[in-house]
Amino acid sequence: MTRVPTPAEPASPPHNAAASAPDSVPSSRVAKRSLSRRFLNRPEVGSLMGAVAVFVLFMAIAEPFRSLDAFTTVLYASSTIGIMAVAVSLLMIGGEFDLSAGVGVVTSALAAAMFAFQFSTNVWIGVAVALALSLTIGFVNGLIVVKTKLPSFLVTLAMFMMLQGLNLAVTRAVTGSVSTQSIANMDGFGSAQAIFATNVSIGEFSVRITVLWWILFVALATWILLRTKVGNWIYAAGGNPDAARAVGVPVNFTKIGLFMSVGFMAWFVGMHQLFRFNTVQSGEGVGNELLFIAACVIGGCALMGGWGTAIGAAIGALIFGMTRMGIVFAGWNADLFMFFIGATLLVATVLNLWVRLRTARR
Amino acid sequence: MPETTSNIIELAGVGKNFGNIHALSDVSISVRSSEVSCILGDNGAGKSTLIKIISGLHQHSTGTYKVDGKAVKFASPRDALDRGIATVYQDLALVPLMPVWRNFFLGSELTSGFWPFRKLRAEEMRTTADAELRQMGIQVPDINQQVNTLSGGQRQVLAIARAIHFGARVLILDEPTAALGVKQAGVVLKYISAARDAGLGVIFITHNPHHAFMVGDHFTILKQGTVDLSAPRAELTLDDLTHHMAGGAELEALEHELSRMEAPDVGAVHELHEHRMGETK
């Protein structure tokens, strides 16, 4: 019970005395946050330290890892996970998951291959059909999540299983086998391959085009997150959807858009696989959705949303690429890949948590 | 105070029924610019129903609600906002993990360029948010810091500054000091009077008569959905207000009853009684 001894002058409650004190006290306390602390509070920092550690480890123990060729291989291995991780990280920042992303890649590739082959069209028609299908899957995921308010974990888990079943069943029904026929000599294959799966030489250094696409997509996603209205909406939709709605942010629109961008990236990676290998195995892709999520989490995206960056997810994907190829170059048993990824995930999340606890409190 | 302008908001005989329950009946209040109108009341007195009517979440069942002299019936909070009536709710509608300036402009971002390349005018938003907050008298050490590093009072002020910047003429503050410590509540009260001095009409909902008396120009006490007391500052003392808020006559009766019941055991209650009597004089 706080008694006010004499009712203060109404127009001028303790203007300077009482009120400026609580202001100046925290400001002098907060000012201590040094530049290094602010740097440590970036979401990517844990993953950056992890990436450096993994890099140093394999540089030290694996002779072949040190060549430029090995580096391009690592970049390629990172890019196929990294392109998906771009969209998955945006979705996670927006507060949702997509477990159907892994098989969604295969669904898209199967659709393009089978449509073009069965109807004997130019492969670009198949590519367009696959794009429409992938965007529709994303839209349906998003619509169900925002309309029912069910956790996206459940909705996309259901979508994951349905797509997995359809991939197998439809492929067998259409082609009579578990994979699609080769489309390598159909119209438009060459130009599509040039877009999705060619090698690009930069100087003496030849790299798969997916690496360049990956860098482009990361840059684009970073620009969207930090410099556009939509980026603001994504952080707000994940951080506090009710508050976002109250100030006029179209939260449902944003979330559906994020699911569709995951669909778009699934289509892109699907097209890469199709035009690199000419055929698609219908049973592939299962389990990859968790790798995408793991890359994002290693890169500092919060599971509950509202926190993370696309660059962090890219570093997470790079850790995957380095580990996958590093194990091979070091001559270890490749079966250990998953073990190392698991260990990295655990260390990275603990490190992120520790860094955040150390720095978030002023 | 510059001028005695006409009422921005005027409610006359407003009532609200939910089915056969009369949540509010015959409530009349008005708010002018540069005036803080306090609405006090115990839990269940009808305070929240009243704010919801004023802010457009509910529609009144009886009486008239006039804004700038014209009778209105709002279909949504957007209608109220368009007329400059902004509500700062207890949860404040802030996103804790986002920087201060992004929160300030959330949902009303400034952009330039055309569609695929339309980008935020980030620097302008930072400086505007910083200037607006300074004008309200709070200085955040870093406009880029996350909202969750601000104190409760600073967050409250951020929400108020945002409402003012986006064109509020009347601010409805729902229990802004309820969850705050003494100092933080003082900070918020200071900004309420700053908003009043900037020419806004403020409706300050609270159940704390001390806080109300420090900034209020007019006091309305609600009790069980009706107006128990409506008086300008000049006709009241803090003790009157506290007395009314605490239940006034009812409390006296209760006190009387208690003192009679425990008569044989004199002690505590008697002392309390004398103490209170002494205080009110």
Task: Write the SSE topology.
The complex is a heterodimer of chains A (about 350) and B (about 280).
Chain A: H1 17-30, H2 35-40, H3 45-61, H4 68-93, H5 101-118, H6 123-148, H7 152-175, H8 189-196, E1 199-202, E2 205-208, H9 209-227, H10 229-239, H11 241-246, H12 251-277, H13 288-298, H14 310-329, H15 337-360
Antiparallel strand pairs in A: 1-2
Chain B: E1 7-18, E2 21-32, E3 35-41, H1 47-54, E4 62-67, E5 70-71, H2 77-82, E6 85-88, H3 100-105, E7 111-112, E8 119-120, H4 122-135, H5 152-165, E9 170-174, H6 182-197, E10 201-206, H7 209-215, E11 218-223, E12 226-232, H8 238-245, H9 249-261, H10 267-280
Parallel strand pairs in B: 3-10, 3-11, 6-9, 9-10
Antiparallel strand pairs in B: 1-2, 1-4, 4-5, 7-8, 11-12
Helix pairs in contact in B: 5-6
What does it look like?
The complex is a heterodimer of chains A (about 350) and B (about 280). Chain A has helices spanning about 15-30, 35-40, 45-60, 70-95, 100-120, 125-150, 150-175, 190-195, 210-225, 230-240, 240-245, 250-275, 290-300, 310-330, 335-360, and strands at about 200, 205-210. Chain A has about 350 residues and is mostly helical. In chain A, helix 4 crosses helix 10. The radius of gyration of chain A is 24 Å and the shape is globular. Chain B is built from ten helices and twelve strands. In chain B, helix 5 runs parallel beside helix 6. Mean pLDDT of chain B is about 80; it is low at about 275-280.
The main β sheet of chain B shows up as: 6 strands, mixed
Q: Secondary-structure element order of chain B, as H and E? A: EEEHEEHEHEEHHEHEHEEHHH
The coarse overall form of chain A would be globular
The whole-angstrom Rg of chain B is 22 Å
- Most extensive chain-chain interface: A-B, 42 and 50 residues
Structural class of chain A: mainly alpha
Strand residue content of chain A: under 5%
Poorly predicted residue ranges of chain B: 277-281
Uncertain segments of chain A of ≥5 residues (pLDDT<50)?
1-32
- The number of helices of chain B is 10
Q: What's the average pLDDT of chain A?
A: 85
Strand content of chain B: 25-35%
Q: In sequence order, what are the helices and strands of chain A, one letter per element?
A: HHHHHHHHEEHHHHHHH
| Backbone structural class of chain B | alpha/beta
Radius of gyration of chain A: 24 Å
